[in-house]
Amino acid sequence: MHVAVGSTNPVKIEAVERTLERFDPTVTAAAVDSGVPEQPWSVAETADGAETRARRALDATDADYGVGLEGGVARFEGVPGLSLIMWAAVTDGNRTERGSGPTLRLPDSVARRLEDGAELGPVMDDLLGTNGIAESEGAAGVLTDGLTDRKRALGEAVACAFGPFRTTHYRS
Prior knowledge:
Layout: E1 2-5, H1 10-19, E2 26-29, H2 43-59, E3 65-74, E4 83-91, E5 96-100, E6 104-105, H3 108-115, H4 120-128, H5 138-143, H6 150-166
Parallel strand pairs: 1-2, 1-3
Antiparallel strand pairs: 3-4, 4-5, 4-6
Helix pairs in contact: 1-6
């Protein structure tokens, strides 16, 4: 199975490799644009970015599947604060499936900076005195004290988006 990931971020690539490892995939990174802002601000925008990445990755390669991963932020009715969200999309060119990863409330100080126009990765780097947190444990790892990390969280989204291609339960 050949899978193209719509990103060159090593965390996204490893999330796909780790999640699909039992299928022994060949995973190719494809540098594609998400078609959404650097900091998506809703479920719709984040899922759209993942879908665009998946389609463009498939189109740019000879892979069997294109996978797109996108992180964003959103507010949910009845849930306090601003939440970090993660979405994946998988396409074989005929069909596209979507799945989300964990949702995590962001600290108010981080949320305020995002509301002022900043992007999560650089805000977290500034807060932690790091560089490239989005290519390592991510905000998910830092904000859960390692109970999860960006790779695992994105992997859950990949599993949920890829599952319908692997089981017969979604066939009409």
